[in-house]
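re: ur question from earlier - yeah i can do the single chain one, its not a big deal. heres the input i used so u can compare w yours
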Amino acid sequence: MARWQYQPPCGPHVRSARADTAGNPTALRRILVAADLSKAAGPTVALAERFARLVGAQLRVLTVFEPLPDLPGIPATDPTEYYALAQETLERDVWPLVKTPRAERIVRHGMVVDTLLREASDWQADVLVVGSHGKGWAQRVLLGSVTERLINHLPTSLLVAPVSVAAAAVSERRERQLAIH
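and the output i got, formated as tokens:
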């Protein structure tokens, strides 16, 4: 097993991977990308597609619909209507972003972290790609970070597309579109 030798300034997070990462890119066979309904989905999917193409890996795009929370004092929303709207948004805004012809698109219902961990393990993904939403300190403390929880429990490697990468990719795409017209 190869280990990452680089220690980032943010801390000594050295992660091991099942796949050989020392100069053997063909060892990465399966890339799982988590695509939510946010604006980070486009750049995250694009990063995963580029990475999968680079290493010749199979790509699976996963969207997780979380259950509706029970909030005191707020009338309950009809789950059927909620999930139908989420599915409509997914088909309109996210699936068209997937350009890889044979990429598998799947939807699961459940808690995001638990579902990502289960899917990565069950499918034996070599890498999970997620987008960072750039939550501030207060949000991370109150709500937690999906990325932080994945780092602590994921049985495979994790590739995170930070907000700045997402913003740059969106700007670059807009510039190309303007240049075409």
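The helical segments are 41-55, 79-94, 112-122, 137-143, 146-153, 163-180. not sure if urs matches, ping me
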